[in-house]
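Help needed: design a sequence for this.
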């Protein structure tokens, strides 16, 4: 049967313009302006296909799915990555489609979908319904109401900034879930699948051709995409799109004091590296003075409240972010009991946060650390630290901020001379940096006369325990910035994607750009003619010149990209075989996650397993007449073609789900081959050993002779292979150890363990043991959030111990 939205004879939408719901006005159902030729070409090519649309920032990507919805009347879920974009995109769709607020709903965290909207959605009657939502908010709503919000209720899902599917992001979970639901539907069903459309200006976080192609292939395959639509530079130009993206101006080039040598900068060892530098007297003078000031305040508080104060710096298992949190909680505890003590706890919180700012910058960001203290301490507290501030609060330390001031004065002068209003965005990496820069701008008289600034970041987490941004203030900042009441926004990446401020004419990168996506998205915020793009700091491995070429490279690769259906039979087999092998490897490496915490945590283990294997977990429910009211089905579906289902019953949903997950774990484990390659090698070794006449059957003289010769030979092997150890550093330590073992003909004994709680170092504990004729048992151990990291750390520990023995 045809879908109820269509008439079988006329193949046209069922709804009548005379009987049309008042939510949509038939006379207004026309766009505000004509589509550009390249937009119309893409809209025409979509039809019922799953497509990814790749166009530069400002080229009008959102118009394409909006026009598709207007023409087809499809019930649409329009996903956006941030809360700030929900209202912006919903407003645009209403204007484009001539729709009312009831037809285009908005959903963010903490809110619920209005019931009338849900009823219209389920019935599929009347005009199209569009829900604009963040992915997390929709997943929570779908979990509360899986029947009405199942994928059968949606004709179309739009992913704004679809590149997020490539990483561990809620987008990925939704995309895999839709693809899985589509695969289960019979072709004869009225809607054989839910259509997916992805929008992006950058398809890959990488910069090399091979990595970009791999990312595109991954997106196209996992989302079951039929086509990749883009426009050539000629089509863009002919269609009236003129990119006003300015050439980058490098305003500051490597003027920072590299306190910690680049070779020692391993992010997972950041805190450990800092304390090692402190103990070895290798840290900066400012770090020493800052620690001295902190110790003095700790001592005073310890003498005053010996039973209440514990220094977080003395607890290596504590995260840096928890230092200030602990002091903040103590201050709240004493607010009524003893305000004076509460104030001292609150003051120490700021000193800890200042130290954290310094550590996470590898001791480079002295200016940020000092300015944070000036911002957060009161007059009396600053007077108590007069010596500290006299030494370190000097104009010459504010290198980057001074350069930022010069850039802002220059750009505002240029705007004034051309009779244009300055409107800029300064991008930073850390939330707290947004506060610091805003404080600096407001206290500078010259800047405050020209600049009206505010800061913006995701409201889900505070910058520090005492600094946060609520939703109302964030909305007010965005409104004032768009209206021109503010002319400078200091923002984290939350403003990079999709934020529409047509008047923006200057983008400043205060911190280094981390990847190609961030570069393309951030630069695209300034679209005015004669706009400027200023870089105050670069990554040495990702210079701006390299990132500049990525957008052109992606468009070139995308224009010549062949989808799976366009490949030759031989190429299809090759691609599919590679995907299956990759999936098998992921499943084998993640198998240790299953059942590690027992039945009580079985569901969480399964979720982590699915995240590692990039597979979708299907959860469905049935009700039974038995004592156990709920029946849960947990289904794991793999790219290898296998499907495993776990079933569990319980009086409560939580119990049933836990039992189903435990059943699934046992079935998944049973599906793994009983012997691996390593086990086969071990069996072969035991077989050979069983046929060998041991030394015990020889005379004492005969025993000594071969043993002495073996020891001498083994020593020679180990000495000649010693140069292999540690030659490529910690990152390749495990490979070096394996090569060393091959040379010395020793089997490396490896074992895994798990830590109950996640801390700075990780949850996986790995041991590698080397034991030979000449070396007694040497064990290297390492922890990490990933197995690979833990293994490399353990291997590095073993390398150092073997070198010490040599």
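Sure. Designed sequence:
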């Amino acid at each position: 049967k045809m879908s109820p939205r269509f008439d079988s004879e006329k193949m046209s939408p069922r709804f009548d313009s005379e009987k049309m719901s008042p939510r949509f006005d038939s006379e207004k159902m026309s766009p505000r302006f004509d589509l550009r030729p390249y937009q119309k070409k893409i809209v025409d090519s979509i039809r019922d296909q799953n497509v990814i649309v790749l166009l530069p920032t400002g080229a009008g990507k959102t118009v394409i799915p909006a026009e598709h919805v207007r023409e087809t009347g499809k019930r649409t879920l329009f996903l956006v990555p941030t809360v700030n974009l929900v209202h912006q995109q919903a407003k645009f769709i209403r204007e484009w489609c001539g729709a009312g607020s009831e037809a285009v709903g908005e959903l963010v965290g903490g809110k619920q979908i209005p019931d009338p909207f849900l009823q219209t959605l389920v019935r599929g009657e009347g005009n199209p319904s569009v829900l604009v939502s963040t992915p997390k908010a929709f997943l929570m709503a779908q979990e509360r109401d899986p029947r009405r919000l199942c994928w059968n209720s949606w004709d179309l899902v739009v992913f704004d900034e679809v590149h997020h599917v490539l990483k561990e992001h809620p987008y990925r979970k939704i995309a895999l879930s839709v693809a899985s639901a589509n695969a289960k539907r019979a072709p004869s069903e009225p809607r054989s699948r839910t259509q997916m459309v992805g929008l992006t200006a950058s398809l890959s976080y990488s910069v090399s051709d091979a990595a970009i192609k791999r990312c595109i292939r991954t997106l196209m395959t996992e989302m079951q995409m039929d086509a990749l639509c883009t426009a050539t530079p000629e089509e863009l130009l002919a269609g009236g799109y003129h990119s006003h993206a300015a050439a980058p101006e490098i305003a500051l080039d490597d003027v920072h004091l590299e306190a910690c040598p680049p070779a020692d900068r391993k992010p997972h060892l950041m805190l450990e590296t800092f304390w090692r530098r402190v103990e070895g007297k290798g840290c900066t003078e400012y770090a020493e003075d800052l620690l001295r000031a902190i110790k003095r305040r700790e001592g005073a508080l310890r003498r005053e409240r010996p039973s209440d104060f514990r220094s977080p710096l003395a607890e290596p298992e504590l995260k840096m972010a928890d230092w200030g949190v602990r002091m903040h909680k103590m201050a709240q505890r004493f607010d009524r009991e003893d305000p004076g003590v509460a104030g001292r706890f609150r003051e120490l919180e700021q000193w800890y946060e200042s130290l954290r700012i310094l550590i996470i910058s590898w001791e480079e960001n002295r200016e940020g650390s000092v300015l944070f203290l000036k911002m957060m301490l009161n007059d009396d507290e600053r007077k108590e630290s007069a010596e500290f501030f006299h030494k370190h609060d000097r104009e010459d330390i504010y290198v980057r901020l001074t350069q930022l001031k010069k850039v802002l004065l220059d750009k505002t002068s240029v705007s004034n001379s051309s009779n244009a209003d300055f409107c800029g965005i300064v991008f930073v990496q850390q939330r707290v940096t947004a506060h610091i820069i805003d404080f600096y701008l407001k206290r500078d008289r010259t800047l405050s006369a020209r600049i009206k600034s505010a800061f913006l970041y995701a409201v889900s987490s505070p910058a520090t325990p005492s600094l946060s941004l609520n939703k109302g203030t964030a909305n007010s900042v965005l409104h004032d910035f768009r209206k021109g009441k503010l002319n400078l926004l200091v923002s984290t990446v939350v403003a990079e994607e999709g934020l529409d401020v047509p008047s923006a004419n200057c983008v400043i990168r205060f911190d280094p750009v981390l990847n190609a996506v961030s570069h393309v998205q951030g630069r695209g915020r300034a679209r005015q003619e004669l706009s400027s793009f200023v870089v105050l700091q670069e990554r040495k491995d990702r210079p701006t010149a390299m990132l500049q070429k990525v957008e052109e490279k992606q468009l070139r690769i995308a224009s010549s990209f062949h989808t799976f259906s366009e490949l030759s039979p031989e190429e299809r087999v090759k691609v599919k075989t590679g995907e299956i092998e990759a999936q098998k490897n992921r499943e084998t490496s993640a198998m240790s996650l299953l059942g590690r915490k027992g039945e009580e945590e079985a569901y969480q283990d399964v979720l982590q397993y699915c995240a590692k294997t990039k597979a979708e977990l299907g959860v469905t429910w049935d009700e039974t007449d038995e004592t156990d009211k709920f029946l849960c089905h947990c289904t794991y579906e793999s790219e290898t073609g296998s499907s495993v289902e776990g079933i569990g019953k319980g009086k409560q949903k939580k119990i049933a789900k836990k039992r189903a997950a435990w059943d699934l774990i046992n079935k998944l484990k049973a599906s793994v081959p009983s012997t691996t390659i390593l086990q086969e090698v071990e069996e072969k070794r035991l077989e050979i050993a069983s046929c060998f006449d041991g030394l015990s059957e020889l005379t004492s003289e005969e025993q000594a002779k071969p043993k002495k010769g073996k020891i001498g030979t083994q020593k020679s092997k180990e000495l000649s292979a010693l140069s292999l150890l540690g030659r490529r550093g910690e990152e390749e330590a495990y490979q070096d150890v394996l090569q060393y073992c091959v040379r010395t003909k020793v089997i490396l004994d490896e074992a895994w363990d798990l830590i109950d709680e996640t801390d700075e170092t990780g949850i996986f504990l790995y041991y590698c043991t080397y034991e030979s004729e000449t070396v007694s048992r040497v064990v290297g151990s390492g922890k990490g959030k990933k197995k690979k990291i833990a293994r490399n750390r353990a291997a590095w520990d073993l390398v150092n111990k073997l070198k010490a023995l040599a």
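Confidence is low (pLDDT under 50) at residues 1-31, 674-678, 756-761.
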